Amino acid sequence: MPKIKTQKTAAKRFDRTGTGKLMRAKGHQSHLRRRRSMRAKRLYGRKIEVTTRGEQVQVERLTPYLK
Question: Which architecture does CATH list for 8-62?
């Protein structure tokens, strides 16, 4: 059985936690951050869970070996 190729762009954007949850970064963090509150800027550093089942299936199909 041949190996399945991983989509490298998707592998860079998603992480898997120790319990198996898929995590992604939030958007809107590239520029125009000086008008944001310190709390909002601090929360941009955290990742949030991919919640919808359809998106989880897509990411798992793109990154079969994501750890």
Answer: Irregular (4.10)
